[in-house]
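Backbone-to-sequence.
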C-alpha cells in the first residue's frame, strides 16, 4: 500500500484551505487523536533543538502531523525495496549467482537454477507483502527494527535450522526450504539497511551463528532534541555500538534513540541509492546472504548429500497422477502402473528427477489421501495398491481428487488426471483452477470414453492451467503410451514454446523458432478423428518414427513427437482437417517465460513493491503486468495471442529502472477474448526463440478479494472467520459461492449464493475451526470461487497458525506497545477483514484512528513503550 494512502486520517487536515500554521496544526493534531499516541518526550531544560532552527517553533504534535501531511509528497523511505533491483530482489540474485557446490563424486558442479533463485527472491520480498502468507508485514523482528538485535539475529539462526531440517528429512523439501530461507534473508538484509553497522564496522556481524546484543534503553545512539520524529544523526554509543532505527508513522523513538526514517525525518536507514551508505550496506548484505547460504550447504547432513543439495538448488516441481478407481477403470489402472514402472526405470538412469511424485485415487463416495514421495519406487508401490471397484453411477469425485493433488504439490508441477466419467463435484472446478494457477500447476486430462459428454470443467481446467485434454480408448496399451507425455518432465524441465486449442479449418501452419540451447523438443497434438498433425524440421524434412533421436507415438486422439537434440531454427507443425486441435509444444532449454502476472503496488510503509493480484484480471480495465524471462536473451518482445494461438496485439513492455534485469512491465487494456502471452526475441548468440506462458487469461466482470492480509487471529483451538469481498462489475447476476481449503479447517461459506446489481459488493464469510492440536506455523490455503451466469473468478487466502495472542497484540510478541498501535494506524480507513479482525478494536467493521486511540488503553507498558 502506498504511503499516501496510509495518511487519509490526516487528509482533512492537510488539504487545500486547511490550517497550516504551527499552532493550528498542533490543535488539529490533538483533535485527530494523534497526541494520544505520541511517546512522551523529555528534554533537559535549556537544551537547544538540533538541526534546522526554523523547526524550533513547531510543537511535538504539530511536527508529527506535518510528517504525515508531507510524507506522501516526499521520496519514500524504503527498506531495501522488496521487488526492486537495488533491493531484496537484486541482493538475492547477486549472492546466489556466486554459489557453486561440487557433487559428492567430484564430477559435476551444482549451482542454483534461475527458477530456484526466483523462488528465493519472491520469498525474501514477500515478507513485506501486505497480504503475505508469512504474516510478517508488521513484525519488527522480521525487519530488525526497534533495536531488536537479539531477537532478529536469533530469528535468522532459528530459520536457518528449520531449513537444514527440511533438507535433511528423508524426503528433502527444497520448495519449503527456499521459502523459509527467504524469510531469514529478508531479516538479514534489513539488518544492514536499518542499522549503523556499516558506519562503525567493515567486518562480518556473524549473522546465522551469532546472537547480537542490544544497548540499554537509556543509552543514547542518536542526537537528542527531535523527540517527536527522532533523530537521524548518530551520537553517543551509536558511533561505536550496533543499533537499529525505530520504525513508526505515529510514534517517535525513545529520546536519544534513532529513527528509521519516514516523512520529514530521514532517520538512519540506507535503503535506496540516494541514501548515504546505501552501496556499502547493499554490498554487505550480498556478502552476508552468500554466507548464510554457505552455512546451510555446509551443515552436517547436507554437506556431501547430493540429494539434499539438488533439492535446494533447483525447482523441478512434482509429477502427479490422479486416478479414477471405479469399476470400469481396470484396464486404465493397469496402464498407469506400467507407465509408473517406466518412470522408475527412467529415473534410475537420470541425474535430475522431479522434486517428488504424487498419487491420488478417487472413487465415489471416497477419495484417498495424497501419496507424496521423492522415491519413484515408493510411487510404484502405492500405484500397485490401486484397484478398480465400486462406482455405479456415472459422475465421480474428480474435482475433489484434483484438489487433493494440487494441495499436495509444490509450485511448477505437472498433474495428470485419468477418468472415464464426468465430475459429480464440478462445482469445485473454479477452486481447482484458482488453487492451481496460484501455484503455477498444469493439469492435463486423459479421458477414456464417458457415460456422458466430456465434462466442460475438464476443458476449462486444462485450458486455464496450461494442460491438455486427450480422448483415448479404454485399453492398457493406449494408457501406457501416455508415458510419452509424462517422461519429458521426469528427465528434464521442458518450457512451453506454443500452446493452442481451436478449430483447424482446413490447413494451418504453425512456425516454431527453436533456440540452439534446446536439448529436446516435444510436440503433443490432440486432434479429432479425420484430422492430422505433422512435424517438419528447419530443413523441411518431415519427422517420422525411426529417424535418429526421434520417437513418434500415435494415440487414438492424436500424436506425440519427441526429438532429442533438435536442430536450431524454425520448425513447423502442419495441422490438416476440419475438426479441432489441442497443441502443446515444449523445449528443454534454459530460456523460459517463467511467469506473467497482473500486479499492484502493496507492502509495508516505505517497503512497497509490485505483488501479484491473486485472481483473474478485470475486463475493460487498464491492468499493470510483470513478466519474468529466465535464461540469456538479447531482447524480448511480448504479444497477446488468442486461445488458438493467433496474434491479438503487441505489448509495449519496458525493462530497467527498479525492475530486475529479467523482468518486463507493461500496462494495457485487456482484450474481450481469452488470451495467452508470448515472448519472442533472440538469445545471447542472436538466434530466435519463442516462449508461451501456459495459463489462459480472460478479463472478468466480477472481482474477488481476500480481506485482512493475514491479520486474523488463527490460533490452535480458535473458531474464527476469513472474509472475502465480491464485487459485481457487470450486469445483475447471481453467483454461486464455494470455498475449499487444504487442511479441512473451514466450514461452508456464507452466503452460498449472492445476487449482485452492477457495482454492488457483498462480503462472504468463511468460518474457520482450527484444531487444538494444530502445529504452529502450519499454512492453509483457502480459495473462494464465485460462478455467475456469464463470468467467474476466485482468489486465494493463505492463513498461518499462530500462537494465541492477547488483545491488542497484533505483532504476536507477547505485549501491547507502540508497534501494535502502528499496525492499526497503518491500516486506517480500511474495512475490517471480519468480526475477529484484531485491528478493529471498537468492533464497528472499520479500522480507523479511533481504534488506534482505543488500543492505547490496552497497552501493557507505560505510555505504550517498547521493552
Amino acid at each position: 500500500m502506498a504511503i499516501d494512502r496510509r495518511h487519509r486520517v490526516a487528509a482533512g487536515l492537510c488539504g487545500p484551505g486547511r490550517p497550516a500554521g504551527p499552532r493550528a496544526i498542533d490543535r488539529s493534531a490533538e483533535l485527530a487523536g494523534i497526541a494520544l499516541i505520541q511517546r512522551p518526550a523529555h528534554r533537559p531544560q535549556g537544551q537547544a533543538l538540533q538541526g534546522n532552527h526554523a523547526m524550533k517553533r513547531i510543537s511535538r504534535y504539530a511536527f508529527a502531523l506535518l510528517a504525515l501531511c508531507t510524507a506522501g509528497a516526499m521520496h519514500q523511505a524504503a527498506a531495501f525495496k522488496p521487488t526492486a533491483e537495488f533491493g531484496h530482489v537484486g541482493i538475492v540474485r547477486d549472492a546466489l549467482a556466486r554459489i557453486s557446490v561440487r557433487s559428492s563424486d567430484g564430477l559435476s558442479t551444482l549451482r542454483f537454477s534461475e527458477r530456484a533463485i526466483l523462488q528465493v527472491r519472491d520469498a525474501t520480498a514477500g515478507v513485506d507483502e501486505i497480504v503475505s502468507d508469512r504474516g510478517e508485514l508488521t513484525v519488527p523482528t522480521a525487519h530488525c527494527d526497534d533495536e531488536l538485535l537479539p531477537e532478529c539475529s536469533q530469528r535468522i539462526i532459528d530459520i536457518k535450522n528449520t531449513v537444514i531440517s527440511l533438507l535433511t528429512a528423508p524426503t528433502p523439501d527444497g520448495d519449503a526450504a527456499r521459502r523459509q530461507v527467504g524469510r531469514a534473508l529478508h531479516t538479514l538484509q534489513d539488518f544492514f539497511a536499518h542499522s549503523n553497522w556499516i558506519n562503525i564496522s567493515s567486518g562480518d556481524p556473524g549473522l546465522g551463528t551469532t546472537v547480537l546484543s542490544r544497548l540499554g534503553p537509556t543509552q543514547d545512539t542518536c542526537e537528542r532534541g527531535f523527540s517527536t520524529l527522532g533523530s537521524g544523526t548518530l551520537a553517543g554509543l551509536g558511533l561505536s555500538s550496533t543499533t537499529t532505527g525505530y520504525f513508526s508513522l505515529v510514534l517517535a523513538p525513545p529520546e536519544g534513540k534513532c529513527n528509521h526514517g519516514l516523512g520529514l525525518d530521514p532517520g538512519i536507514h540506507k535503503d535506496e541509492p540516494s541514501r548515504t551508505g546505501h552501496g556499502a550496506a547493499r554490498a554487505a548484505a550480498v556478502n552476508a546472504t552468500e554466507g548464510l547460504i554457505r552455512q546451510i550447504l555446509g551443515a552436517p547432513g547436507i554437506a556431501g548429500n547430493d540429494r539434499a543439495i539438488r533439492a535446494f538448488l533447483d525447482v523441478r516441481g512434482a509429477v502427479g497422477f490422479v486416478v479414477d478407481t471405479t469399476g470400469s477403470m481396470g484396464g486404465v489402472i493397469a496402464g498407469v502402473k506400467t507407465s509408473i514402472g517406466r518412470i522408475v526405470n527412467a529415473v534410475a538412469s537420470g541425474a535430475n528427477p522431479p522434486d517428488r511424485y504424487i498419487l491420488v485415487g478417487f472413487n465415489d463416495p471416497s477419495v484417498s489421501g495424497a501419496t507424496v514421495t521423492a522415491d519413484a519406487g515408493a510411487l510404484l508401490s502405492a500405484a500397485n495398491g490401486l484397484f478398480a471397484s465400486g462406482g455405479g453411477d456415472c459422475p465421480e469425485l474428480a474435482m475433489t481428487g484434483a484438489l487433493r493433488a494440487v494441495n499436495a504439490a509444490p509450485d511448477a508441477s505437472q498433474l495428470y488426471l485419468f477418468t472415464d466419467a464426468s465430475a459429480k463435484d464440478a462445482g469445485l472446478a473454479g477452486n481447482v483452477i484458482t488453487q492451481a494457477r496460484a501455484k503455477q500447476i498444469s493439469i492435463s486430462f486423459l479421458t477414456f470414453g464417458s457415460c456422458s459428454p466430456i465434462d466442460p470443467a475438464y476443458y476449462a481446467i486444462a485450458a486455464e492451467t496450461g494442460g491438455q485434454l486427450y480422448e483415448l480408448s479404454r485399453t492398457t496399451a493406449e494408457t501406457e503410451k501416455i508415458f510419452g507425455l509424462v517422461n519429458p518432465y521426469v528427465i528434464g524441465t521442458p518450457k512451453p514454446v506454443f500452446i493452442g486449442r481451436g478449430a483447424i479449418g482446413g490447413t494451418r501452419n504453425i512456425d516454431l523458432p527453436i533456440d540452439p540451447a534446446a536439448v529436446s523438443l516435444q510436440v503433443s497434438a490432440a486432434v479429432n478423428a479425420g484430422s492430422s498433425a505433422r512435424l517438419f524440421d528447419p530443413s523441411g524434412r518431415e519427422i517420422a518414427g525411426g529417424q535418429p533421436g526421434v520417437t513418434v507415438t500415435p494415440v487414438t486422439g492424436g500424436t506425440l513427437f519427441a526429438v532429442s537434440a533438435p536442430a536450431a531454427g524454425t520448425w513447423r507443425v502442419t495441422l490438416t482437417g476440419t475438426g479441432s486441435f489441442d497443441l502443446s509444444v515444449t523445449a528443454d532449454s534454459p530460456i523460459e517465460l517463467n511467469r506473467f502476472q497482473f500486479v499492484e503496488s502493496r507492502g509495508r510503509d516505505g517497503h512497497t513493491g509490485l505483488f501479484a493480484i491473486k485472481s483473474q484480471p478485470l475486463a475493460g480495465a487498464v491492468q499493470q503486468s510483470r513478466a519474468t524471462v529466465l535464461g540469456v536473451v538479447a531482447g524480448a518482445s511480448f504479444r497477446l495471442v488468442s486461445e488458438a494461438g493467433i496474434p491479438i496485439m503487441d505489448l509495449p513492455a519496458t525493462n530497467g529502472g527498479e525492475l530486475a534485469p529479467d523482468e518486463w512491465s507493461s500496462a494495457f487494456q485487456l482484450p474481450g477474448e481469452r488470451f495467452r502471452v508470448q515472448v519472442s526475441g533472440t538469445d545471447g548468440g542472436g538466434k530466435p526463440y519463442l516462449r508461451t506462458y501456459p495459463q489462459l487469461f480472460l478479463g472478468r466482470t466480477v472481482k474477488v478479494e481476500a480481506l485482512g492480509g493475514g491479520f486474523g487471529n488463527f490460533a490452535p483451538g480458535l473458531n474464527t472467520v476469513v472474509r472475502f469481498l465480491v464485487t459485481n462489475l457487470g450486469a445483475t447476476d447471481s453467483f454461486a459461492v464455494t470455498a475449499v481449503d487444504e487442511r479441512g479447517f473451514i466450514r461452508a461459506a456464507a452466503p452460498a449464493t449472492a445476487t449482485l446489481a452492477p457495482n454492488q459488493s457483498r462480503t462472504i464469510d468463511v468460518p474457520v475451526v482450527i484444531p487444538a492440536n494444530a502445529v504452529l506455523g502450519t499454512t492453509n490455503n483457502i480459495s473462494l470461487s464465485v460462478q455467475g451466469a456469464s463470468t467467474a473468478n476466485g482468489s486465494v487466502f493463505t492463513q498461518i497458525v499462530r500462537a494465541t495472542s492477547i488483545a491488542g497484540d497484533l505483532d504476536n510478541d507477547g505485549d501491547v506497545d507502540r508497534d501494535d498501535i502502528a499496525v492499526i494506524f497503518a491500516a486506517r480507513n480500511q474495512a475490517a477483514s471480519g468480526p475477529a479482525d484484531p485491528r478493529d478494536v471498537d468492533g464497528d467493521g472499520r479500522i480507523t484512528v479511533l481504534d488506534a486511540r482505543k488500543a492505547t488503553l490496552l497497552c501493557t507498558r507505560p505510555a505504550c513503550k517498547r521493552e
